[in-house]
Amino acid sequence: MEFKQRTLMQIADMICGNFPEEKSFFQYRSSSRLTEFFYDCDTDFAHDGSTRNIWVADTLKSILAEPHPNAQTPPTAFGRVIRTLMDQGNALNESAQRPGALAMLTTALTREGFEPFYADDKQCYLRHIATNIIATQPNPHRPFSTTELKRREQLTAYLTAASEDDLIEEVLLPLFRQMGFHRVTAAGHKDKALEYGKDVWMKFTLPTQHVLYFGIQAKRGKLDASGVTKGDNANMAEIYNQVLMMLGHEIFDPETSKRALVDHAFIVAGGDITKQARNWLGGKLDASKRSQIMFMDREDILNLFIVTSLPLPAGALPKLTSDMDDDLPF
């Protein structure tokens, strides 16, 4: 990945703190502090005594030349550089939210098609502007902040009451789009037309430019291995037939005007997927089909939705009650 030299020099000046002290939003870093900065970014770069901003720009160029998944995702080391640079504890001449520093960094990175932003964990991440993909993907298994836990509780309550269509349209479609899948399409779920066992189909482009097709079979409640479907609980035998249809029927990709088989299938539950249900399905499928199946339950959905900083569905947001009107003096 290559950035323009102008962009590299602008970011280098921010890292060096090459601004008048009384107006700067970035701390001044001497030679030893620059070495310390890049050590904090988990790299081995040490300043060699040359002109500071030129050396930093060359270092950033080396970091950007490292392997990376695709054109929308810079190397992970570059993401660590941005997070270290924008650490809220290093705020200077402004509030901890660092609006001035964020504006300067945004001006530089927009030229390259990226946008920095603070997530709920108060860390700075990059978003690819054209695709809205979070380039430096947050870890869904990290501890959550108080704010994130509150959003997680709201989303949990929403999933408990949501219909299958709500789960698909309001949660799964924006989530998979955010994670880099494209052509994410709901396959006639509302009218049950031409589903062939899949509620959603989508595709993902590998770094080699090969394309994989995915299908999603979504259920709003719990998936278990009981003999019959009870209430919101879905029986895995029902899912078994739908998965076989999903893997056996082609989808039409309008971008290529060709039909293609689904390479992998996601079974997604708004509740839990029991271990017995997973084992039962694994025992029914042959080895080739078994390797094509992936599971996501409520915990996976919640964690991924929160760390990708997606806005909550409208139904998950607190509602203003009419009781407030009673307190008005007119």
Can you describe what's shown?
The chain has 330 residues and is α/β, with parallel strands linked by helices. It contains twelve helices and twelve strands. The protein has helices at 5-16, 31-40, 52-64, 76-85, 99-110, 146-161, 164-178, 236-248, 275-284, 287-290, 298-307, 323-326, and strands at 114-118, 124-128, 133-134, 182-186, 200-205, 211-219, 223-224, 234-235, 250-253, 258-261, 264-269, 293-296. The protein folds into two domains: 5-134, no CATH class; 146-316, 3-Layer(aba) Sandwich (Restriction Endonuclease), CATH 3.40.91. A five-stranded mixed sheet has the order 4-5-6-11-12, sandwiched between helices. It starts with a helix and ends with a helix. The radius of gyration is 24 Å and the shape is elongated. β2 (124-128) and β3 (133-134) form a beta hairpin.
Q: How far is the N terminus from the C terminus?
A: 62 Å
Number of domains: 2
Low-confidence stretches: 189-194, 320-330
How would you characterize the largest beta sheet?
5 strands, mixed
Tally of DSSP helical segments? 12
Strand content: 15-25%
Instruction: Say what the CATH topology of the largest domain is.
Output: Restriction Endonuclease
The helix fraction, in percent, is: 25-40%
- The spatial strand order of the largest sheet comes to 4-5-6-11-12
CATH class of the largest domain: Alpha Beta
State the CATH architecture of the largest domain: 3-Layer(aba) Sandwich
| Record field, number of beta strands | 12
> Rough shape?
elongated
Q: What is the succession of H and E elements?
A: HHHHHEEEHHEEEEEHEEEHHEHH
What is the SS-derived class? alpha/beta
CA radius of gyration is: 24 Å
Mean pLDDT: 84
Protein name: Restriction endonuclease
Organism: Variovorax rhizosphaerae
